[in-house]
Amino acid sequence: MSTHTEAGHHGPAKGISRWILTTNHKDIGTMYLVFSLIMLFIGGSMAFVIRAELFQPGLQLVMPEFFNQMTTMHGLIMVFGAVMPAFVGLANWQVPLMIGAPDMALPRLNNLSFWILPFAFSMLLATLLMPGGAPDFGWTFYAPLSTTYAPPSVTFFIFAIHMMGISSILGAINIIVTIFNMRAPGMKMMDLPLFVWTWLITAFLLIAVMPVLAAVVTMMLMDVHFGTSFFNAAGGGDPVLFQHVFWFFAHPEVYIMVLPAFGIVSQIVPTFARKPLFGYHSMVYATASIAILSFIVWAHHMFTVGMPLVGELFFMYSTMLIAVPTGVKVFNWVSTMFRGSMTFETPMLFAIAFIVLFTIGGLSGLMLAIAPADFQYHDTYFVVAHFHYVLVPGAVFGIIAGVYYWLPKWCGKMYDEKLGQWHFWLSFIGVNLTFFPMHFVGLAGMPRRIPDYALQFADFNMLTSLGAFLFGTTQLLFVYILIKTVRKGKPAPQLPWDGAKGLEWTVPTPAPYHTFATPPVFGDK
Amino acid sequence: MTENITVPSQMQRRIIPARLSFFRFFKALNYLGYPDWQKQTILIFLVWDWKNKKKRPILRTKSNFYLQRATNDGCTIRCKENAMCRLLHLFSTALVLTPAPLVALEFNMPAGVTDTSQSVFNLHMTIFYICLVIGIIVFGIMFWSIFHHRKSKGAKAAQFHGSVLVEVIWTLIPLLILIAMAIPATTTLTDMYDATESDLDIQVTGHQWKWHYKYIGEDVDFFSILATSREEIENRKQKNPNYLLEVDNALVVPTNKKIRFLFTSNDVIHSWWVPDLAVKKDAIPGFINESWTLINEPGTYRGQCAELCGKHHAFMPIEVKAVPEVEYLAWLDAQKASKLAAAGAVDKDWSKDELMAAGASVYEKNCAVCHQADGSGLPPAFPPLNGSAIVQGDKTGHMQLVINGRQEKGMPAFGAQLSVADIAAVITYERNSWDNQTGDMVSPAEVQSLMDSQ
C-alpha cells in the first residue's frame, strides 16, 4: 500500500498471479464461489452414480464397495467442499460491503484460508485412485469401521480433514475480527444486517467445533498408526466415544451450514416485500439461541447406541427446544411478507422455496427428535430425506438466492430473469421429486447407505432417481445463466432491486475493486 | 343400457363382465391383490354411477374431453356430465387400471405387532398430524399473503416491523405444543427401556455380514445369513417377493413371551432392526446393549442391518419367525438334536465328493461375498483364492488360516463360526476348485485334531 501513490485505488494484477497472490476480499470471494460450484458438480456427479445404481433393485452399475465410496465422498464434498466454501465466499464478498469496510481485517490470512482448500480437496479426491479405494465408511466415519477396518486411504482423508479445518478456522477468525473492528462509524452491533449477524454467530460456532473435528480425526490417526485404542474396545477403548466427539462437532456443523442461509433469506424477503424485516431483534436472539442449543443436543444422532434413559430424555427435550427459536424465525419471515408489496424475481422465489422446504425439513426434524419414534426413523431414508430438505432446498437454495440477489452488484450485469425463473421452477420440481419420496421409503423401512434394496421400495426409488437427474441437470442451466450474465448480460442499474436497503447498495455498479476506502457514515436507519 | 359399457381389452372383459355383479367383480379384484382402500373407492364409484344410470346420456361434447379420454383408455362405464362424477370416474379408472402392486405401495411406518410398536406408531402419527396442522396454518398464511399482497395487485407495503406481544405468543404456543408432545414420548420411552422380567434371553451378535443368535441357557446358537441368490442380485434371475429380506436360519421366537435381546458385535458397529417390532439397537463391539419385545401375533417379520458396516451392509437381513410356544419348544428340541447330529459328523467317514458338495454350499454362504464365487477375490482388500499360494500350499497352513482368521485384514476366525465338518468341506472345496487342483482332501478329523492341538 505504501509504495503506491494512489494507495488503495489500484486495479487487480494481470494474469494468473492476480488469483494466486490476491488479498482482495472480492477476488477471494469469487474464488471461493467458483470453487464451491466446481465441488457442487463433483459431489453431484457422485450423487448421479448413487441414484443411477438405485434406479432399480439389483446391482447394475457399481459394486457395493464403490457405492460406499460414492456415498462417503458425496457427503464430504457437499458439506466441506460445496456448502461451507460457498458461504465463506458470500461472506467475503458481502461482509465488508455490508458493514462499510474496505476489505477483510486479515487479507493475507484470507488468501491462505482459501488456497488451502484446493490442495485439501485434490488430496481427498486422489484417494479414489488409491489401492483399496477412497474412504468408504460414510461421511460420519464411525469407528471402528473407519479405523481398524478402513482402507489405507484413511490417512489421506484425515490429513485432508485437518487442512479443511484449518481453512475454516482461519476464515472464521477473519470474519469475526472484521465484524468487530471494521464496522462503519456509527454502526452498532444491533445495526448489523442479518446476514452479517448470522455469519458472526456461525464463525463462533466454527471456531468452537472445528478443533473438535481435528481432535477426533487425530484420535483416529493414533488408533490407525500408533497403536492407541481410543475407539478399539479390544484395547479398552470405546467405539461410542467416537460418536460423542464426532457429533459434538457435527451437530453445530449442521447449523454452520444453515445459519448464513437464514441471514441471506432475511435480507431478500424484506427487499422483495418492500417492507422492513419483522422482529429484527428476535431474529438475532433466535439465531444465537439456536447456536447455543446446538451444543447440547448432539446425542440425538445416537438414540440407538444404548444411552441410559435419562440421557435419552435430556437429548430429546433439548432437541425439541430448538423448534422454538426456529419457529420464531419462520413466523418472522411470514410476517415480513404479510401486508407487503411483493414481487417474485428469482432471488425471492428461491427465498420463498427456502422458507417452505426448510420448514418441511424442520418439521421432520421435530419428528426425529422424539426418541421412541426415532428408533424407527434412525438410519433410514427418512433421515436422508430430512437432512437433504434442510441442506438442499435449505442451504443450497439460500446460496443460490444470495448469488442471484447480489450478482448484479458484483459484476454490474443483470441475469436473464426468464432463464432464472426456469432455473427456479425446474430446481423446485426436481428437488421435491428427489427428496419427498425418500420420506415414504424411509418410513416403510428402507435403511440408508445401501446399494440394493427390497422390492417394495422400487417405485419410489425410481421416482427419486428421476427427480435427481432432473435436479442435477438443471444446475447446468445455472452455470449457463452465470456465464451468460458475466459475458453479455444487460448492464445492471445502481439499485437493481427497488426495495433493497443497506450499505452494499450504495457502492457503484459494478462494485469497484476497492470500496469504502473512506468509511461511509452509517446513520440512515 | 349395455351399449354404455365399453370393453376395451381382454383383461377388462374378464374382471368386469358386461352385467357385472359386485360380488364377482370384487372377487376378481381380490384375486388380483388390490388393497382394501382401493376396492372401497371403486365400490363408492360404482354405487354413485349406478344411481346416475337412468339419466345418463352419452356425451360427446368438448367439455367432456377427459371423460372421453378415460373411456378410450379403457374406462368401462359412462355417466352423466357431472364434475364430481367425472372426477370419481377418472380416479377409479386409474385405480382399476393401475397394477395392484403399484397401488399397494408402502409409504408409512408399520404399526407392527407389539404393544410397543403400536404406541410408537401412534406417537408417530400424532406428531405427524401436529406438524401437518402447523404446516397448513403457516403456509396458509404465507400463500394467502403471496396471493393478495403482491405489487402487481396494487398492494401497498405496510411498514410495521415488530410486536413484542405477538413474538411472545408465538414463542409460548410452540413451547406448550412441545410439552404436550413430550409427555406421551416420555411414557413410551420409559416403557421401552424396561427390559426386566424377561421370559427368554437371546444374545444377538453382529458379524460382517451376518447375524449370530444364541439362546441363553439353551445351548442353541446359529448364524443367520442372507438366502437371496447371487443370480437374483445380479439380475440374472427373477427376484422373489422377499428379495434381500430372507435368511437361511430365521430367528424363531415364541409369541406372548417377553423376549430380551442382548446385542453385541464381533467387528464393527451393526444395528439390529425389525420395523414390525419397533426394535432398533446398535450392536457395538466390546459392549452389550439390551432391548425387549413381546410379540402378539404369530408371523414372519423382516428387517435389515441399519448401521453402515462395510461392503455388504445391504446384505445382512433379519428374519424373525414368531410361533406359538408349543411350536417354539418343538423347534428348540429339533435344534438341539441337529446339533448333536452335527457333532457326530466329525467321526463319519467322508468321501471327497461329499466334502466337495458340502464345501460348495459353505463357500457360497460364507466366503463368496469377499473372495467371490469364482475365487478371484477383490484385491487388495480380499485376495484371490484361485491360484493362491496358501490354498495350493501346505494343508496345515490353509487350515490354520481358515480356523484362526486374520483379524487385522478382516478375515474372520471361522473356527468359532463353522462346524468342523463345514471347515473341512470348504477347505477341500477351495483346494480342488477353479485352477486349484491339488487333488488332496481335508477330513473333519484332521481339522478337529489341529483345533485340539491349538
Fold and architecture overview:
The complex is a heterodimer of chains A (525) and B (454). Chain A is mainly alpha-helical. Chain A is built from 16 helices and two strands. A two-stranded antiparallel ribbon of chain A has the order 1-2. The radius of gyration of chain A is 23 Å and the shape is globular. The two termini of chain A are 33 Å apart. Chain B folds into four domains: 9-104, no CATH class; 115-148 and 165-192, no CATH class; 200-341, Immunoglobulin-like (Sandwich), CATH 2.60.40; 348-453, Cytochrome c-like domain (Cytochrome Bc1 Complex, Chain D, domain 2, Orthogonal Bundle). Chain B is built from 16 helices and ten strands. In chain B, helix 7 packs antiparallel against helix 8 (164-192) and helix 15 crosses helix 16. The longest helix of chain B is centred in the N-terminal third of the chain and has 34 residues, at 115-148. Chains A and B meet through helix 3, helix 9, helix 10, helix 11 and helix 12 of A and helix 7, helix 8, strand 7 and strand 9 of B.
Side-by-side strand order of the widest sheet of chain B: 3-2-1-5-8
Fold-level CATH name of the largest domain in chain B: Immunoglobulin-like
Note the beta-strand portion of chain A: under 5%
Largest sheet of chain B: 5 strands, mixed
Strand tally of chain B is 10
| Sheet with most strands: strand arrangement of chain A | 1-2
Largest interface: A-B, 95 and 98 residues
Low-confidence runs of at least 5 consecutive residues of chain B: 1-19, 54-81
The average pLDDT score of chain B comes to 82
Number of helices of chain A: 16
Tell me the CATH superfamily of the largest domain in chain B.
Cupredoxins -  blue copper proteins
**Could you give the order of the helices and strands of chain A?**
HHHHHHHHHHHHHHEHHE
Structural class of chain A: mainly alpha
